[in-house]
Amino acid sequence: MIGMFSTKAWSAKRAFTLGLLAFLLAPIAALADEGRVTPESVDCLSCHGEPTLTVKLESGEEAPLFMKKELLAASVHEALRCTDCHAGQNQVPHPERHYKNLAQFRASFGEACKNCHFENYTKTLDSVHYGLQARGDVFAPTCVKCHGAHDIARPAQPRSRISQTCATCHRPISEAYAKSVHGKALLADRNPDVPVCTDCHRSHNIADPKSRAWLMNTPALCGKCHADDKLMRKYGLSTSVLSSYLADFHGTTASFGAKGRKTADEPVVALCVDCHGIHDIAKVTGASAPAFRANLVKTCSKCHKGASENFPAAWLSHYEPSLQRAPLVFMVKLFYQLIIPFIVGGLILQILLHLWRTVVNR
Amino acid sequence: MSPTSDDVVRFGPRDRIEHALVMLIFFALALTGLPQKFHDAALSKTIVNVLGGIAQVRYLHRLSGVLFSAMTLLHLVSALAAVIAGRSRLSMVPGAKDFRDVVTTLRYYMRISEVRARFDRFDYKEKFEYWGIVFGGLIMITTGFALLYPIEVTRFLPGQIIPAAKVAHGNEGLMAFLVVILWHIYNVVFAPEVFPGSKTIFTGKISRERMRHEHPLEYARMFPEEADQVLGDDAADPARKKDG
């Protein structure tokens, strides 16, 4: 619960407590304050509560060792002892350790989370972020870079916090997302249905979004919501977008995994994101529809070099052919729906009659 | 009757080679085309994987399609040249007799009448399959061309041509496959008269017995001395006087 208090609210409360009750209830107020962190933490803070406390590393960098009590008290982990995470530090003075630089110093605590959060820790081992870490990238996100260290709060309260967390590093993408149909609904309307970063990219086992496997999975990923009848009805959106995609050339290719390309950089095949965009996905109906339509030739030309004005109509825009939408396609389809059973049925009947007559003749 | 001395030649080397090639190409087209139409089926995924992926399957399909187109066009051009030069007997051209033969045959099958139709060089079933391959082939060639060159085709024609061509290509192909699998294979392999299969299209030879039975009108022309015997078998055939 305490995690929900913002630092600002907490200070206001503290100011109020101090301002009005300091003289009368000083001892009780102090007790209440101490109750927010563990007694052991109080011990630690007798040294680490000193703002000037630092340690000099081999690189010459100074590592700050100061810990604000309010920060600890606001964390979801307020009930944990310092040594639950900082294992091996119960002795004072602490055993001597050697760190080359600040990055190494920080990384040494990075694996403390797995003691409790083992499942999520294991998931991160498959993530693109862990891949960076393994290659020695000191800027690669660790648990604490996203979740914070001493001030850990619930990551999805409010939901928009998730996007803000990712934006720390992925600023331009976050800005594009904020302008998209999904981002706008999240930020302006607090919409609970639109995806935040982690809904598509997952939170701990974040895959490389440029990998083939990930790209090929995008129709299924978008389909998770856009083929969900209950969810789409709420917004008046069609759920046949996935089935109509899969039934056409692009989707069929994608469903076969587009294996066997001649060269690695040959385009895979048009996936949802190739026409609709990735983070900047816009509505294709309503106000932005004309812009989307006007841009279609350009969109198709990304792969189909030399496409003319007629070309975009070769794709039925997720619509089922009908007399109004695509009369030619509709008529051809209807023709075969009638002629195939007629011809094939007629031939089977003739085979059966022939067999019957042969039996009768014997 | 020993078959060797008794056989007559029905198909020349050119017909036999053409049939063998069309058979192979048709099989290749069906094998690489149907999994694309029925892309959801587990068997389709297996076939595509075995053949080395969808890009490879499409390459093979297009290659076979180009070969099929070349063969069809060559066949039609040479047939047309033969007609113009007056070298063709036009034995494949359907006529009123073929429609009467259908009625006669169906009446016979249903035991309404005991009269059997008497066929010339090609019976109505053979003509139906031949023209089915020709017209179906032309549809497959034109729609396949549109699907292979959508950018170029839509430069002159409306975009809707492409999805229409796709619907036509897939359905026409399916129909051709079903007609061949059910009708053609029945007629030349499983029908009691030919079971376990007629080899005529591969060897070019047919026994005189089968010839007399299945193509009596042509037989009578080949062996005029037996014409009266063959054609006189069934005086009740009403079609005979007009067509025979």
Write a structural description.
The complex is a heterodimer of chains A (362) and B (244). Helix content of chain A is 53%, strand content 2%. Chain A is built from 21 helices and 2 strands. In chain A, strand 1 and strand 2 form a beta hairpin. In chain A, helix 10 packs across helix 11. The longest helix of chain A has 35 residues, at 327-361. Residues 1-10 and 25-35 of chain A have low confidence and may be disordered. Chain B has one domain (3-88, 124-214): Transmembrane di-heme cytochromes, Chain C (Fumarate Reductase Cytochrome B subunit, Up-down Bundle). In chain B, helix 2 (13-37) packs across helix 3 (42-50) and helix 2 packs across helix 8. Chain B contains 13 helices and 2 strands, in the order αβααααααααβαααα. With 244 residues, chain B is mainly α. The chains are: A mainly alpha (362), B mainly alpha (244). Chains A and B meet through helix 17 and helix 21 of A and helix 3, helix 4, helix 5, helix 7 and helix 8 of B.
Q: Please give the CATH class of chain B.
A: Mainly Alpha
* Multimeric state: heterodimer
Low-confidence residue ranges of chain B: 235-244
Q: Give me the number of helical elements of chain A.
A: 21
Q: What structural category characterises the helix and strand content of chain B?
A: mainly alpha
Rg of chain A, alpha carbons: 31 Å
Which homologous superfamily in CATH is the superfamily of chain B? Transmembrane di-heme cytochromes, Chain C
Residue fraction in strands of chain B = under 5%
Helix percentage range of chain B: over 70%
**Helical amount of chain A:** 40-55%
Q: Kindly state the mean pLDDT of chain B as a whole number? A: 90
Largest sheet of chain A: 2 strands, antiparallel
Q: Which structural class fits the helix and strand makeup of chain A?
A: mainly alpha
Distance between the termini of chain B: 27 Å
Find the count of extended strands of chain B (DSSP E, 2+ residues).
2
